[in-house]
Amino acid sequence: MNDFLRRVLEHARSTGIHDYWFRSWPAPGKVTQEACGLLPVPGVDATKLLGCVMDVGRYVGNVGHVAECRAIPDPRFTPPAAVRFYQRLKIPLLGDLHHELVLRRLEGQPGGFEVALWELLPAETEALSTRVGIRSQYSDGAWLVAPGLVGYALSSCPRREDVGLLKWKAMTAGADVAASKMIRENIESMARWAARS
Q1: Euclidean distance between CA atoms 163 and 180, whole angstroms
Q2: What residues form DSSP beta bridges with 134?
Q3: Residue 119 contacts by C-beta under 8 Å, 6 or more apart in sequence?
Q4: What is the pTM of this model?
């Protein structure tokens, strides 16, 4: 468990959520807020949903805004417990954002949730081409599943040198404003995918 997930679990709760719930908060050293949404999904199967989360090669068409996503073999990260992957996102009006990440399925139930957690791979992301897309400066996130409840937490920011001032403002302050809607849409799309699986 990393510091990001610890902060998420200080805010999130795995019981008593009856409607869409959203919180955001500032974090040390980050220019964007960290955020978490929780949505009741009656009958959700945690094993199925987190199985879809770990199936990064099938994100395109199942998870919104994902234009490209593929696993990268890496002996440091062994499926099904962990996977390294490349992801390119299409952000309306702003262009493409891309990065390399590691996604891990955590053992146990921290905070009452089953969790899949991702972190940016900084050196691998820095090596990506700016011709393909804007690179991420940081990207931390988590999928959280409890009985009848699915959560999604996120903290992300583009590299300042990859964007002009207007895009920078749209992808930082603007992203904070849009976070609640985007998080809810991601939860709904993942829950639909898991239900079809």
Answers
A1: 23
A2: 97
A3: 2, 4, 101, 102, 139, 140
A4: 0.95
